[in-house]
Specification:
By secondary structure, this protein is of the alpha/beta class. The protein folds into two domains: 113 residues, Rossmann fold; 66 residues, no CATH class. The chain is built from nine helices and five strands. A five-stranded parallel sheet has the order 2-3-1-4-5, with helices on both faces. Helix 2 packs across helix 5 and helix 3 packs antiparallel against helix 5. It is globular, with a radius of gyration of 17 Å.
Length: 190
């Protein structure tokens, strides 16, 4: 089974690109949202380490945002707790799809949390900063301070780009992205 890891900056369109491959996709952001809504164990762990911020189940975005913005180390603490659960979910996903030709890993901290393997095919999604910022500002809960906190724990886009075997330039038109994905699939199938 081929493992395709999608890398890129926040808001660059990684999830859209991941879905374009047509292979099963593990989307870490969706899994985190499910954890916050349905997983009491995660809530209890977060409540234990950050009781001032995690006091009510299901966990809502306000609790998470308040915790992250209040203290520099809170984001790393949350990531550590959540990462453990996400890794378990990813392993279940990989096991379930082990007979598939390929799977796509849409995990924002793929390299940072050393989830990638040596043979993974890494694809960097590159988008113009101005386009990304315009898209991010349209999000309902856009918060520039929160964005900066998340960026502070991520490796630089330049580093991720260097580590990647392929680069998809996302100008946020479906045709160009789909054509880029088709070319990559063609190369991978050789």
């Amino acid at each position: 089974m081929m493992r395709i890891g999608i890398l890129g900056d926040i808001g660059s369109g990684k999830s859209y690109v991941a879905r374009c491959f047509g292979y099963p996709v593990f989307n870490a952001d969706e899994e985190v949202a499910k954890l916050y809504k349905k997983n009491r164990r995660t809530f209890k762990k977060l409540k234990k380490v950050l009781p001032k911020y995690f006091y009510k189940f299901p966990i809502n975005k306000n609790q998470v945002t308040t915790a992250i913005l209040a203290n520099k180390s809170n984001l790393k603490t949350i990531v550590k707790v959540v990462h453990w659960e996400i890794r378990k979910k990813m392993n279940i996903f990989l096991n379930k799809n082990r007979h598939k030709r390929a799977v796509v890993l849409d995990i924002p901290l793929l390299l940072e949390n050393k989830i990638n393997k040596k043979n993974d095919i890494l694809i960097f999604v590159q988008a113009r900063r101005a386009d990304v910022l315009k898209r991010l500002k349209k999000r309902i809960n856009f918060n520039p301070k929160l964005l900066n906190k998340f960026k502070s724990i991520q490796l630089s886009p330049g580093y991720k780009k260097k580590k990647s075997q392929f680069i998809i330039k996302n100008n946020f038109t479906k045709i160009s992205v789909k054509n880029s994905v088709k070319k990559i699939i063609k190369k991978l199938n050789k």
